[in-house]
# Entry
Amino acid sequence: MKKRTTIYLDEDLHKKVRMLAVRENTTMAKIFVQALKRYLAEIQEDPRQEKFAQLLGRP
# Structure
């Protein structure tokens, strides 16, 4: 099941992500999802992020 969300980007960032999507023949949504998954995987490995992990409900 997927959920929908709205984010607001400044014009320059929006343009850069849109151009990346065109160049990579993908969608902006897929770029954001992939980037968020990578970010979350990285912080799970960082012991300084323990409080953030607790907010996500991870023991």
User: Anything to note?
Assistant: The chain has a mean pLDDT of 86. The chain has one domain: 11-55. The CA atoms of residues 6 and 29 lie 11 Å apart.
